[in-house]
Amino acid sequence: MKILANDGISKSGILALEKGGFEVITTKVAQEQVANFVNENNIAVVLVRSATKVRKDIIDACPGLKIIGRGGVGMDNIDVDYAKSKGIHVINTPASSSESVAELVFAHLFSGVRFLHDSNRNMPLEGDTNFDGLKKAYANGIELRGKTLGIVGIGRIGQATAKMALALGMKVIAADSFIPQVDVKVEFFDGQSITTNIVSQSLESLFKDADFITLHVPAQDGYIIGEKELAIMKDGVGIVNCARGGVIDEVALVKALDSGKVLFAGLDVFENEPTPEMAILMNHKISLTPHIGAATAEAQDRIGTELASQIISILT
């Protein structure tokens, strides 16, 4: 039985699938050619990450498709309900990349509060001629310890982010329409742990109370953060989005950055992917990464082996 891993899969995932008797094809097929490739090669399973879309047209055109797998959490690039209505299994790996995304959130937070994203641009240009000037420009850093982190969406990734914040000595607050409260357990290297209860509050109160805000929500029909929401936030707030593009009004964000209302933003995802707006890319107050939240070796290994385990259990 053949599997097309169109957006790639880890070596450990390939080995697990091959051991289970499957043939894994990692050829990158263009979006418009996916259906033809699936049919011509008798593909039973299509695995994607965030790049390839599996919509109704592909589902209808590929009657031999048995499983659609998403390496990661969000499945907004798959017509999940329609696929299921056609008897196709739809699987994902919600727990595999939580820590990787959470660590990237803190990479952006640390970059923002110590101006690393801007310093790394200017030191190569001016470090030898304006060292003292740059030192003065980046001298007003902020510590994360003791500050309040507002987490919008306290699911698996939100909880992983909360653990790291608590370990740093931050206060954590959360807003989630589906999770009223959650126990977050912070485990240490020696087997000890602490557990704290986080009770969900309103979005409005979170926006008012948080020093830093991080989003962990699926794709939305509208903005979660727009002009109105930015207006009620603290002056000098920092905002990180490693979830989905389109949940922040980028025009309003740039205005808030330019006015000083928002101190910095960290963006891993964008309204227009894969061609983000130049106003975002060139803004010196934004720390930027190209949608790499789950792109660690460890996460990809976990994703690959978890997908393999689910596929083997369904088809054998």
UniProtKB/TrEMBL annotation:
Location of the D-isomer specific 2-hydroxyacid dehydrogenase catalytic domain: 9-315
Keyword match Ribosomal protein: no
Ranges where the D-isomer specific 2-hydroxyacid dehydrogenase NAD-binding domain occurs: 107-293
Keywords from the named record: NAD, Oxidoreductase
One GO MF term attached to the UniProt entry: NAD binding
Family in the record: Belongs to the D-isomer specific 2-hydroxyacid dehydrogenase family.
Annotated organism of origin: Flavobacterium micromati
Record flagged with keyword Oxidoreductase: yes
Protein name as catalogued: D-3-phosphoglycerate dehydrogenase
